[in-house]
Design a protein that fits this description.
By secondary structure, the protein is α/β, with parallel strands linked by helices. 42% of the residues lie in helices and 19% in strands. Bound molecules: 5'-O-[(R)-(carboxyoxy)(hydroxy)phosphoryl]adenosine and zinc ion. The site of zinc ion (ZN) has 4 residues, from helix 4.
């Protein structure tokens, strides 16, 4: 069974091919990041238009030498995400479906992220804890099996990547701020600014990052010469954000007694987070896994893979299934 996967929920146009016997046999991603950088964040209308412009060449790249007629079914992200961007992927999937006479499978973007580790590891069995940290999501999820997910904690306001990007903007760093903050923080003192660790000691597993971002804003307002403090601000902010994540992850592992932790999302690239997670491996005697970075961030391989696991009664055609908001417990 050859499943075509299409992902257009935000600012990546991606197509992949997953063969149930051979695994991943083709994938291509075009990132719009340079286009949005000029505006300091994703501009939804520009994202939709660019998906329209790029999707055919991304499909051709993913197909390689294969003919489109070889595919058996078409999985696509139907939510959550930017509505206009989702509709481009869905319309494209429906068009292919009508032209080729193949069924479509609407896929939940976060569910695809949760299942993505299977693309890179064959030693991961259920259950496991997933920490999904990106520009759009900050979630701690107990993954008990396919379709059996419990959200243990989630951000009550900004996603952690969003906080990195907003602080990056305050420090006049290019978009997205995350990797730049990490780089600049290497020359800074993480103890110089005593930023808050919101909700770190709350008795639940929820997260919050907007107060931390506001604390950075206030500390900058009081400074005479911002430039010379940027490394210390970056290091202190990063330390506070990662401290909160580490504390909540630790709590989730001890509460659930799970022995495997999987990280996903762009923030999983952060070196300090990775160092802290390695320490947890020894401290709690657990296994920590990072899928390949290209499968941690938005991609279509995870969409094709999840589509390949879906049963035919989940296959629908025709009407739009796009859902900008789609709680994970409704899959
Ligand atoms: O998963 P992703 O590529 O895209 C979506 O959010 O859809 O994640 C991007 C996010 C951005 O907020 C970016 O600043 C953050 O991941 N990020 C990082 C690092 N690399 C990317 N945050 C902290 N440290 C990094 N090294
Ligand atoms: Zn995502």
């Amino acid at each position: 069974m050859l499943t075509l996967g299409i992902e257009t929920s935000c600012d990546e146009t991606a197509v992949a091919l997953y063969d149930s016997e051979e695994g991943l046999v083709g994938e291509s991603v075009f990132s719009q990041i340079d286009m949005h950088a000029e505006y300091g964040g994703v501009v939804p209308e520009l994202a939709s238009r660019d998906h329209c412009l790029k999707i055919i060449s991304v499909l051709e790249d993913a197909l390689g030498a294969r003919n489109i007629s070889e595919i058996d079914q078409i999985a696509y992200t139907s939510g959550p995400g930017l509505l206009g961007a989702l509709l481009v992927g869905e319309s494209f999937a429906h068009g292919l479906s009508a032209g080729l006479g193949k069924p479509t499978i609407p896929v939940h973007h976060l569910e695809a992220h949760l299942m993505a580790p299977a693309l890179d590891f064959d030693d991961i069995g259920f259950p496991f804890i997933s920490l999904l940290v990106s520009g759009g999501h900050s979630l701690i999820i107990d993954v008990k099996g396919l379709g059996d997910y419990t959200i243990l904690g989630e951000s009550q306001d900004d996603a952690v990547g969003e906080a990195f990007d907003k602080v990056g903007k305050l420090l006049n760093l290019p978009y997205p701020g995350g990797p730049h903050i990490e780089r600049i923080a290497r020359d800074g003192d993480p103890k110089k600014f005593n930023y808050p660790r919101p909700m770190m000691h709350s008795d639940n597993l929820n997260l919050s990052f907007s107060g931390l971002k506001t604390a950075v804003l206030y500390s900058i307002r009081d400074l005479e010469n911002l430039d010379e403090h940027i490394p210390d601000i970056a290091a202190s902010f990063q330390r506070a954000a990662i401290d909160v994540l580490v504390s909540k992850i630790k709590k989730s592992l001890t509460q659930t007694n799970r022995d495997t932790l999987i990280l996903a999302g762009g923030v999983a690239a952060n070196g300090l987070l990775r160092d802290e997670m390695s320490k947890l491996e020894d401290e709690l005697n657990i296994k920590v896994r990072y899928p390949a970075m290209k499968h941690c961030t938005d991609n279509a391989a995870m969409i094709a893979y999840l589509g390949s696991l879906k049963t035919p009664d989940m296959v629908t055609q025709g009407n739009s299934n796009a859902r900008p908001r789609w709680p994970l417990n409704e899959v």
